Amino acid sequence: MLLYWKNSMDEKALSQLKDFVDNAEKIVAFTGAGFSADSGISTFRGAGGLWSKYNPSIYADIRVFMQDSTYYWQFFRDERYPVIKKAKPNDGHYVLADLEKQGKLYRVITQNIDGLHQAAGCSDVIELHGSTRVINCLSCEKTYSMDEVYEKLKKELPPKCSCGGMLKTGTVLFGESLPQQALDEASLASRHCDLFIVLGSSLVVYPAASLPEIAKNHGAGLVIVNIDPTPLDGIADLVIHENAAKVLSQLVYEG
User: Fold this and answer.
1) 80 and 111 share a domain?
2) Enclosing domain of residue 207
3) What is the dihedral of CA 216, 227, 229, 96, to 10 degrees?
4) Residue 159 CA to its chain's centroid (Å)
5) Residue 100 shares a structural domain with residue 221
6) Which of 209, 212, 204 is nearest to 236 (CA)?
7) Which residues are annotated as catalytic?
8) Are 57 and 161 in a shared domain?
9) What is the dihedral of CA 191, 193, 198, 203, to 10 degrees?
10) pLDDT at 9
């Protein structure tokens, strides 16, 4: 394993990463909350993360939501909508979109719910935790956009569907299982790639965090780029403790 610590990354690290990318034909990029941090979207864990201000067992738990969704929708109205609405793809998102155009990027697997990969131009994105940009009625299955529901939130809390049913974002809350189709597609991609790059994920949330191990066990190279150490650093071929979007932009523009 080659290890490059935060704030000590040099041209050797970038050269090694560039070699991995240049020699790969089917890359899977696995992105977590740290990858969207440069777009102004707060991470959930760690110092300054959202869960240091909001208790996830209240604001993001499916059992609480089904009993009283007011907490969640306050959080959405005051915290999530303004941030995601304003957010734009960062350089890292555009680098991945460019790799897809080149035919090197096989799939993007993301834990993020912000839709920024698609906004940057990636067309093959597996959203393990769903998307906050689509909101569904749990009764009649009518769908709404974020903007439509935000307008509803100005008048009523929690918001209701036109049929009177409960609305829920298309995201996975604590206590819910990951969408089986997305998980199956992600597992398949992990088994068939030749390079698996983790970008901005702490790799502590399972079963998503098992995907790098699946890729490694099926012969893929494993690169982990994350500011903080992860539980899987020990099995990676290259570890860079640095901002993931920054590393990708340097790889393309300076490497």
Assistant:
1) no
2) 1-40+89-129+178-255
3) -10
4) 26
5) yes
6) 212
7) 129
8) yes
9) 0
10) 53
